[in-house]
Fold this sequence. Notes:
This protein has 156 residues and is mainly alpha-helical. It has helices at 3-55, 60-107, 112-143.
Amino acid sequence: xxLTDSLFHVTGVAQVIQLAVAPVFLLxxxxxxxxxxxxxxxxxxxxxxxxxxxxxxxxPEHAEELHARLRVLSKRASLINRAIALCVLCGLLVSLVVAxxxxxxxxxxDLAMPIAxxxxxxxxxxxxxxxxxxxxxxxxxxxxxxxxxxxxxxPK
Length: 156
């Protein structure tokens, strides 16, 4: 390998690294989102455990209210779990995109279409995760009491 060939190879690798920077930033964002989701699921679990402990000594009327709140927490936990799964899928797919960029460049294999498809699926899974997260936030906001008073819903 001549010096010129070596320089072209280094330049090619540098270009692949430049191409991989955007997906790596996306990975950082997905990691931050996963941190937020993990914190929310932790708080939901802690709150559910607290309510389950209160159930043992609750009066029948209060137990009914606790069961209703536990159902809301269960729904919220389910939505957050789906969001976490989709974020993890996104992270895995973006990692595959970065790896495929390097494999494609190093082995001179045209992986443009699989890379593009994988990246689009990663973005769709992130979008779906954010939708689940938004649904969970709406449910949490709806179930929130301020000053102990439940918000009354207008008749539908």
